Description:
Layout: E1 10-14, H1 20-31, H2 41-50, E2 56-62, E3 65-77, E4 84-92, H3 101-115, E5 120-124, H4 127-130, E6 136-137, E7 151-155, E8 165-166
Parallel strand pairs: 4-5
Antiparallel strand pairs: 1-2, 2-3, 3-4, 3-8, 5-7, 6-7
Amino acid sequence: MTKEPNHPKLDIRFETAADIIGIHKLTQQAFHGRPYAAGDEQEVVDRLRDRGALTISLVAFEEGQLAGQITFSPAEVTDASAPWFALGPVSVIPERQGDGIGASLIAAGIAEIVKHGALGCILTGNPTYYQRFGFEAAPDNAPTNEPAEYFMLKLLAGSKPSGRFAFHPAFYA
Length: 173
Ligand SMILES: CC(C)(COP(=O)(O)OP(=O)(O)OC[C@H]1O[C@@H](n2cnc3c(N)ncnc32)[C@H](O)[C@@H]1OP(=O)(O)O)[C@@H](O)C(=O)NCCC(=O)NCCS
């Protein structure tokens, strides 16, 4: 079961230029001190945007305050099937974590990539969290430069590809 936000006034919409600085700060705050954080998650979002690979960026506002953001970018797989999308980073401000905002952003984002004809969605993340959204471990499809045990796939159309995925190069530099 995914949690629904306790706050009834959650407004989820596409990012605008006015949100960019806030998204950078939010992402930095959300990942700060996390043992699994690379420390450059906020730069990943900026690089994806700068390179035209920020396919979907949704922001969640509560009473005019930015409370969360989710990123989707194009992903490739060696069998050349398309389109696939990568989820992440996804961030919720520390004081509002655990209240369903992340779940709401993930549900809204998946609905958007379905509109883009997504065959499915990939991510590297904690299986305990993402399995509740229908993601399944897919170590055989993991990019060679990602930890296979944290690589997950959610099929939206078609069947599981046979090849290995690649995240957009903007994730790495
Ligand atoms: C991960 C994140 C986006 C989830 O959003 P959220 O609004 O806090 O999460 P929700 O309220 O929808 O779900 C809460 C549940 O997720 C769990 N959860 C949250 N982050 C988790 C993580 N990194 N790993 C495992 N479980 C996690 C909580 O323990 C809670 O579990 P429960 O329902 O069994 O009590 C948010 O916690 C966050 O910004 N974390 C820091 C940044 C991060 O790790 N981003 C994801 C990696 S790309």
